[in-house]
Amino acid sequence: LNIIIAAFIAAILIGISARIISHRKEIQFEAIAFVSLLPMIPGMYAYRTMQNFIRCIEGAGNMDHDHYFALMSYNALMTFAIILMMAIGVMMVPKKIGYHQNK
Q: Which label site among 20, 22, 63, 80 has the fewest CB atoms less than 10 Å from its CB?
């Protein structure tokens, strides 16, 4: 659960930073935020999900099937939860943050 909360907090900080930088450099917010969030995608959990999915299929009818299904489910839920919290965290940042429009 700690990695999910950490991803959420990091996404909020990335969102705040991206808003400030995008305003100062006149670059689209999404261009900065997406590139910053990309390395945070939980590749190991996604990899283990697919690995255990294959083992689950191979072990159909065995006692191992239930074990690998449980591991696959856990890793899939972790992957989904981390990505969801990253998306929610970066979207929570308001459009105007810490600067004044001079127009």
A: 63
